[in-house]
Amino acid sequence: DNPVARAGLFKKLGCQWIHVVDLDGAFSGKPVNYKIIEKIINLKDLNIQLGGGIRDINTIDLWIKLGVQRVILGTAAMKTPQLVFEACEKHPNKIVIGLDVRDGCIAVEGWLEQSDIEAISIAKKFENSGLASIVYTDISKDGLLRGPSIDETVNFAKKIKTPVIVSGGISCAEDLMQIKSKESFGIEGVISGRAIYDGRLDIKESNKILSN
Fold this sequence. Notes:
Layout: H1 3-12, E1 17-21, H2 23-28, H3 34-41, E2 47-51, H4 57-66, E3 70-73, H5 75-79, H6 81-90, E4 95-102, E5 105-108, E6 113-118, H7 119-125, E7 133-138, H8 150-158, E8 164-167, H9 173-180, E9 187-191, H10 194-197, H11 203-211
Parallel strand pairs: 1-2, 2-3, 3-4, 4-7, 7-8, 8-9
Antiparallel strand pairs: 4-5, 5-6
C-alpha cells in the first residue's frame, strides 16, 4: 500500500533497477499515478524503467526529464509505430517496447484486446530504430508463478538483434538461474513482481544470481 516505501526497500536491498507500471495509466491512456512515481524517481541512485499510459512524445519527454532512465511503450508501439521511431531518435537507448504476448500474438490496451499481429513482426519493424530493449511478457503466465516461457522467449530473442527482457511467470531462484544461462542468446534481464511480494524470491539472492 506504499509504493514509495517499497521502492526505498528495494534500493536498500541492493536493487539497481526498478520496473514501474502505472496500471491506471495503461487503462486510461495517460499517466495517472504521476505524484507517486515522481517520489520514486526522487529516491535517487535507482534506475527507473517506466510504462503505462505513455502514448505521446510530450509524455515521454516529461518522464525522461524527470529522471526516468527507460520509458516503455506498449499499446502506443502497436497503434502509432512512428512514435517509437521519433522517441528513439530523440532519446537514444532510453526507449523500450513492451510486447504482451498470448500464443505468439500481441495483446494491447492493458491486455483487453487480442490482436492477430505476431510479436516477432513488431520486433523486426523496430530492429534498427535504436531501442534499448524489448520486454517480452507471456501474459498467459504472468502472475501465476508457474515459471516463465523461457524457450519461447529465447526463440524470440534469437531472431532479433535487440536485447530482450523476460517477464511473466517467475516463481523461484531456479527460474532466474535458467534465464541467466540463456544470456548469450540475447536475454538481457528479467522482471519479477509477485514472486518478490509473496516472498518466493529473496532479493539479495536474486541479485547475486543475475550479477554473476
